[in-house]
Amino acid sequence: MREEEMESLRVDLDALVLAFNDGAPARSYYLDRDTGKVFSLLEDHVDAETEEIVWQIEADGGQRYLQVPKLTMEEELQEQDSFLESIEDKELKTKLAKLIESDPDGSRFQDFVSREREARERWRTFCRTRSRERADQWLKSLGLSAD
Predict the structure, then answer these.
(1) Mean pLDDT score of the chain, rounded to an integer?
(2) Which of 45, 52, 112, 123 has its CA 20 to 30 A from that of 64?
(3) DSSP string of 36-72?
């Protein structure tokens, strides 16, 4: 693809934000640089269509299909810290601070926000916002724009 074509390629930002927000280890997302479409693959899902797509991705060598990056564990823990800093509710902030302090892998944090409605809603909003920011930054680093 020529440089001027890349600059005019429009990517579905909503689909890309979803990809950045999905931390499922068995699901990978890819951006097709020719079409701007974002698609996902499940590692344990094997059928002829999936095998063909995997073959195309492997044969491509990263020219057309770009894997959407996932957060590392360290980055996920940093996101939890950033979330904590964004909370104004003193009671919730105190609970989360104690939890994060004694939670080296972030699993207790995830359990807490899945159980506590107020924390869950705030966490989801925070994650969507951060995923959108990461998606925008990633696209800019590739010289692309979004719809």
Answers:
(1) 88
(2) 45
(3) --EEEEETT---HHHHHHHHHHHHHTTSSEEEPPPPP
Angstrom distance (rounded) from CA 31 to CA 142:
11
CA angle at residue 51 from 30 to 16, to 5 degrees?
15
d(CA 140, CA 105): 31
The single-letter code of the amino acid at 145 is: S
* C-alpha to C-alpha distance for 104 and 110, rounded to whole angstroms: 12
CA torsion angle 72 75 77 80 (round to 10): -130
Task: Count CB neighbours of 51 within 10 A.
Answer: 11
Dist. CA 88–CA 43, nearest whole Å: 40
**In the chain, where are the structural domains located?**
3-69, 73-135
For the chain, percent of residues with pLDDT exceeding 70: 93
Q: Residue 52 above 80 pLDDT?
A: yes
Q: Are 29 and 38 in contact (CB under 8 A)?
A: yes
